[in-house]
Amino acid sequence: MMGMPVDKPLTYLDNAATTPPYPEVLARMHEVMMDGWGNPSSPHVVGRRAKEMLEESRAVIAGVLGVDADEIYFTSGSTESNNLAIRGACLAQRENPGKIITSTLEHSSVTRTVRGMRRDHDWDCRYVDALDGGFDMEQLAEHLQDGPTSLISVMRVQNETGWIFPIPEIAQLRDELAPGVPLHCDATQAFCKMPVNPREWGVQLLTAGAHKIGGPRGIGILYVQRGLPMHTTAFGGNQERGLRSGTEPVFLAVGMAEAVRITAAHMETDMEYAASLRERAIEGLKREIPDVVVHAPEGGSPYILSVSVPGLPNAVSVKYLSGRRVCVSRASACEENHTTVAPGTWRPKHPLSLQAAGIPLREGKETLRVSFFHRNTPEDVDRFVAVLAQCAREMRES
């Protein structure tokens, strides 16, 4: 089938993978590349100007999180931050290693880092189930009481289903059964989209990225509670107070701070608006495709919707939608690039990790992730529903 001409409107509903940058972010980054191009480690006037911009950006991000600026470390993005959080916190305890506890539904940058700690350093790793979106607190309690623990790592918003995990309750249970154990939270899909409060939650390490909120790719942050021992995983010029060496990309840090300013300013209204788009999509899909399966428990993220169309493989539906300039995804975008990885270094997981979430294998292969941002419109949602319904009808009639 021929796709729609490229002059047709683009319907972009893959915002959990990345968001288009704000024009204000691009403009601000251009200004910095012209005026703040110096090395922030240089002591002269050009370097000091770059350093000022870098620290101003750090302060903006820290302010939104309710933490101190010197607890924010810039990285290349959430993947590096997750790697650094897990390896850094655990290797700092390598003389007295305990176990690592994580959920079965973490992003691959967490699961593979944990597996690497087990493979390369013989670290004990335990997993907590989250069937049907419910994080198993009893299982967590059992793990915490079974010998020493070095780290707990649990995401706030599951990136493929939108399920929200109870980070404050996890921290409270940790305080009761294993006080002092660091808790890492991957907040990539939550940061600036809903309240994120590491200090109030009792979190010692927290990950966030810029390109999920209208900022540039290639920049993220790791919050590290002051005083938490950390082992550096990148040696070199001692940047970022020795934790993450490498000359800081000031223009990217400023771009992230600008995106944070814009997005955080209307976070509450954006949440309500995203919820209305999500509900509109659910209602439309149930009307046009009565047997659609919606993986959407109450209390999930308003920004992510996971649905399955029985009998319609997601490889087919994504291609059909894309040919008509409607963009959604089958899974986390990070999982789509595995064919470029050297043999033996990548292990496939179940589609969308949904089997681990209690969703049958067949449905997982039919599942789409639809994700919203506040610049989407009701017309975007209606067009997605109409095109997916058309795809389902054509497939079933053929």
Your description of this structure?
Helix content is 40%, strand content 12%. It has 398 residues and is an alpha/beta fold. The strands form three sheets. Strands 2-8-7-6-5-3-4 form a seven-stranded mixed beta sheet, with helices on both faces. Strands 9-10-12 form a three-stranded antiparallel beta sheet. A two-stranded parallel sheet has the order 1-11. Helix 1 packs antiparallel against helix 8 (250-265) and helix 5 (137-145) packs parallel to helix 6.
Mind sketching the topology for me?
Layout: E1 11-12, H1 23-35, H2 45-65, E2 72-75, H3 78-91, E3 99-103, H4 108-121, E4 124-128, H5 137-145, E5 149-153, H6 167-177, E6 183-186, H7 198-201, E7 205-209, E8 220-224, H8 250-265, H9 267-288, E9 293-294, E10 304-308, H10 314-323, E11 326-327, H11 361-364, E12 367-371, H12 378-397
Parallel strand pairs: 1-11, 3-4, 3-5, 5-6, 6-7
Antiparallel strand pairs: 2-8, 7-8, 9-10, 10-12
Largest sheet at a glance?
7 strands, mixed
In the predicted model, the low-confidence regions spanning at least 5 consecutive residues are: 335-352
- Main structural class: alpha/beta
| SS summary, helix count | 12
Radius of gyration: 22 Å
The SSE string, one letter per element, is: EHHEHEHEHEHEHEEHHEEHEHEH
Question: What helical percentage do the residues reach?
Answer: 25-40%
Overall strand count: 12
Question: Order of strands across the biggest sheet?
Answer: 2-8-7-6-5-3-4
Strand content bin: 5-15%
What distance lies between the first and last C-alpha atoms, to the nearest angstrom? 13 Å
Structural shape:
globular
